[in-house]
Design a protein that fits this description.
Number of domains of chain B: 1
Number of strands of chain B: 4
Number of strands of chain A: 18
Strand order of the largest sheet of chain B: 1-4-2-3
Order of helices and strands of chain B: EHEEHEH
Structural class of chain A: alpha/beta
Distance between the termini of chain B: 35 Å
Helix content of chain A: 40-55%
CATH architecture of chain B: 2-Layer Sandwich
CATH topology of chain B: Histidine-containing Protein, Chain: A
Radius of gyration of chain A: 26 Å
Mean pLDDT of chain A: 87
Oligomer: heterodimer
CATH topology of the largest domain in chain A: TIM Barrel
CATH superfamily of chain B: HPr-like
Shape of chain B: globular
Low-confidence stretches of chain A: 1-7, 146-150
Number of helices of chain B: 3
Largest sheet of chain B: 4 strands, antiparallel
Largest sheet of chain A: 8 strands, mixed
């Protein structure tokens, strides 16, 4: 579709962090403020900083109230730091010694940031971006640059090197607009917020030309067009209108009868990252939950979560699902998902390291708590459990033994519990190649990792994007192998990777023999629509 | 700091194991300092084996503890509500920093 546009103006390809389209004024924002302020006396400087801290505190509070939830929690650390006298006293001492307010503030924060960055703790290093955000926010207020936000034109394509969550949250996105980042990552906090708000975002654009006035952001094609020609704008508007129409039609199709292909019903399930994902308007149309990730429980929110916290989360999901099946995946930490205090530090190759079920078997203290909560939840609904990152049948059996043991102990304690159906994620090529040897009740193909391991391409390395194509015949061959074995042995096989939601891949997956796909709630409509469309082609 | 301050009561102490997976990170630290600030007492904490006591009301200091999972957090307080303060903080850490409803 991209080829239709004769591109005469600069166009840049990045990675999609959030889909959708935007056309609007192009606004470059820089992390560092560039206002110039005149330094006053020591007393003036101290007053200026006090005022700036108070003003920043108010801004943060208003912002936190406006965004609520997760966004507000990200901001709370900054708010509390602004009221921390132990932290502020040295800053005011520096001002007392003749330092300007901005220099004193910046140096105190820079020292703190350097300190955070110097730790081996990944989590603390991540917090340093919150500190940088706070530093720049106060500096902006100090330099009198506080109209910065209100000057943002409606529907702007905001371009930055990277964008801190608070800066994203204070922009009014209700009139449209989008985000174009030169660096950034699809898995960052701000990318999550953009997806939640439906703001298109393209990241990793590299370096781009200066001075553009207008831009087209194509979150579907991961493109940024600067100063588009009128022809390009017409084409863009067509494309956006088509996209919107398709979305509307697809959403209508969700309410229709189940999709089928080749005379067989295709079950469409959803992947959820956390319980709140069930609030998506389209979630209700799913045939069940194909993948509930549980790593959110390991986040800092709840720490290594206790049994009750976990049970309540699982129970909520089961109650939501009613009679529909819910497949919960046990902790899949490690790889690109480090969890302080749980995952192993200092692995040279974390993707090939102690992750997924390997880690859980190594940490039965943590694993047993999760299995207990799951065994208790199993009596509450149609629960299935799957283990991630399984390589050999004995790993599944070791997990099963632990699970059986946990159920036995619960029963001995007089607590209602059951052993749910046990399945595995198929994401290690060795498992796909020896699939007949696993005594699993079901298989779920994790195509993201499978493609990564089959093609020997790091998923997070953007420069390998072309090679890690999930339509690589080697990947499809393994998927077909698992699907075919499942069919023969009467074991259900689903696929829960990103390719299940990729319209380019769906026909190939169905042709491989898959009849169950699990996708994010926001992709459900498009996937169903795509399958209905394939049927149309069949009949012609 | 506490020892030199003149108060009408003795120093109350307590200790509790940090069970939080990520250790004393941003959210736990924010909760701990916010709770500490509700009390008038002077409150200090330290993580297992550290020599230095730090102000429990300073989020920067609490973060700088770098207390990891399973470390023992010692708490001491002096002042009129010292006892209640130590009890509340021990409870907060022991219950793994629960989210308090609005």
């Amino acid at each position: 579709m991209n080829e239709r546009a004769a591109i005469s103006q600069p166009a840049y390809r990045g990675r999609t962090a959030s889909g959708g389209f935007a056309l609007g004024p192009f606004v470059r924002i820089d992390a560092a403020p560039n206002g110039v302020r005149v330094t006053g006396s020591c007393a003036d400087e101290a007053l200026a900083l006090r005022a700036a801290l108070a003003m920043t505190g108010q801004q943060l509070e208003l912002l936190a109230r406006a965004v609520g939830g997760e966004g507000a929690q990200i901001l709370e650390f900054q708010t509390v730091l602004l009221e921390d006298d132990d932290f502020l006293d040295p800053v005011f001492a520096m001002i007392g010694e003749g330092c300007s307010a901005d220099a004193a503030w910046a140096s105190a924060l820079d020292a703190q940031i350097a300190d955070y960055n110097s730790t081996p703790d990944e989590y603390l290093r991540a917090r340093s971006s919150d500190l940088a955000d706070l530093r720049d926010r106060v500096l902006r207020v100090l330099s009198g640059d506080r109209d910065n936000d209100t000057e943002m034109p409606e529907g702007a394509i905001v371009c930055a090197d990277d964008l801190p969550p608070s800066r994203f949250l204070e922009i009014d996105w209700s009139k449209g607009g989008g985000v174009a980042l030169l660096r950034g990552s699809p898995t960052s906090h701000v990318a999550m917020l953009a997806r939640a708000r439906g703001v298109p975002m393209v990241v990793q654009l590299g370096s781009i030309a200066e001075g553009a006035q207008l831009a087209i952001l194509d979150g579907e094609g991961a493109m940024l067009h600067l100063d588009p020609t009128s022809e390009q704008i017409v084409l863009f508007e067509d494309r956006r209108a088509t996209y919107r129409r398709e979305r509307a039609v697809a959403r209508a199709a969700l309410r229709g009868p189940a999709a089928s292909w080749d005379g067989e019903e295709i079950r469409l399930l959803i992947n959820i990252q956390r319980v709140e994902d069930l609030e998506h308007a389209d979630a209700q149309y799913a045939d069940g939950i194909g993948l509930m990730r549980t790593e959110f429980l390991l986040g800092e929110q709840a720490g290594l979560p206790d049994e009750e916290t976990q049970y309540l989360a699982y129970d909520r999901v089961l109650r939501w699902a009613g009679a529909r099946p819910v497949t919960i995946r046990t902790f899949d930490a490690g790889g690109d998902k480090p969890v302080p205090g749980f995952t192993e530090d200092g692995e040279a190759n974390p993707f090939l390291g102690v992750r997924g079920l390997r880690l859980c078997l190594k940490r039965p203290d943590v694993f047993a708590v999760q299995l207990r909560a799951l065994a208790r939840a199993a009596v509450r609904g149609n629960l299935k459990i799957m283990f991630p990152m399984v390589t050999a049948p004995e790993e599944l059996e070791a997990g099963r033994r632990l699970f059986v043991d946990v159920v036995g102990r619960l029963e001995a304690e007089g607590i209602a519990a059951a052993l749910p159906e046990l399945g595995i994620m198929v994401e290690v090529p060795a498992a796909a190649l020896t699939i007949e040897q696993f005594r699993a009740s079901f298989f779920s193909i994790g195509s993201n990792d499978l493609a990564q391991y089959v093609t020997a391409c790091d998923r997070s390395n953007g420069s390998l994007a072309r090679l890690i194509d999930p339509l690589n015949p080697a990947v499809l061959q393994l998927i077909g192998r698992v699907a075919e074995y499942g069919r023969r042995a009467g074991i259900s096989v689903s696929l829960c990777g990103e390719m299940a939601a990729d319209p380019r891949c769906i026909a190939a997956l169905l042709a491989c023999g898959l009849r169950e796909l699990s996708v994010n709630p926001s992709s459900l409509a498009e996937v169903k629509q795509t399958i209905l469309g394939l049927n149309g082609d069949n009949r012609d | 700091m506490l020892e030199t301050r003149k108060t009408n009561g003795e120093i109350v102490t307590g200790s509790v194991k940090l069970v939080h997976a990520a250790g004393m990170h941003a959210r736990p630290a924010v909760k701990l300092t916010k709770l500490a600030k509700r009390f008038k007492a002077q409150i200090s904490i330290r993580a297992s084996d550290a020599a230095e006591w730090i102000n429990a009301k300073s989020v920067a200091k609490v973060m700088a503890l770098r207390a990891s999972r399973d470390s023992i957090i010692e708490i001491k307080a002096s002042g009129e509500d010292a006892k209640a303060a130590v009890a509340a903080l021990v409870d907060l850490v022991a219950t793994d920093f629960p989210d308090t409803g609005p």
